[in-house]
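Quick review question:
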């Protein structure tokens, strides 16, 4: 009887621990990264179709590589950085709740939907912009590259995105990445 009671208590503790992990993840707590790309931890807190596709890790890797090249960085520039894809229309950045992306404290957070429409692919998000902050800093956006991005857009032209089970064009708008200098 004591052995049975011990097994029940142990089972209850395991269930409670599992429940705590689920609750922490549901509340936006610090969940373990879901996978890594070139040593960069990636967490997904979104059900956007493109985040669920098999090619998502490869698309992240390509997007990061293009962004690193644009900003003059390397994979070592992102060492210890975690990228979080969030399903909300905004992420909190330095106390400001209306951002679509943020780099702070070794974490890049990006939304997977614009306030007006869903994103169909990772390349549409502000990931390229936030990699810039990870590589060069520049919180005031004084570097002229913040207003260019034509070469990045060219590399992403013609990609397919996803809307439900269907493939759709992945429209790239450099205005998503641009930011005039803060004055």
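Suggested answer, residue by residue:
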């Amino acid at each position: 009887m004591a052995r049975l009671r011990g097994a029940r208590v142990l089972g209850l503790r395991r269930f409670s621990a599992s429940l705590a992990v689920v609750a922490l993840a549901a509340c936006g707590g610090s969940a373990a990264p879901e996978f890594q790309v070139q040593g960069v931890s990636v967490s997904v807190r979104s059900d956007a179709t493109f985040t669920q596709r098999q090619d998502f890790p490869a698309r992240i890797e390509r997007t990061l590589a293009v962004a690193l090249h644009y900003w003059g960085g390397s994979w070592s520039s992102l060492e210890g950085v975690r990228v979080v894809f969030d399903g909300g229309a905004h992420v909190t950045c330095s106390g400001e709740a209306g951002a679509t992306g943020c780099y702070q404290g070794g974490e890049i957070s990006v939304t997977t939907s614009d306030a007006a429409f869903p994103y169909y692919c990772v390349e549409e998000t502000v990931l390229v912009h936030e990699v810039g902050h990870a590589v060069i800093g520049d919180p005031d956006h004084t570097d002229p590259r913040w207003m260019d991005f034509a070469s990045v857009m060219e590399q992403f032209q013609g990609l397919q995105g996803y809307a439900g089970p269907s493939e759709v064009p992945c429209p790239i708008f450099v205005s998503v990445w641009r930011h005039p200098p803060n004055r």
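Why it works: Strands lie at 35-37, 40-45, 82-86, 91-93, 96-99, 101-104, 107-111, 160-163, 166-169. The longest strand covers residues 40-45.
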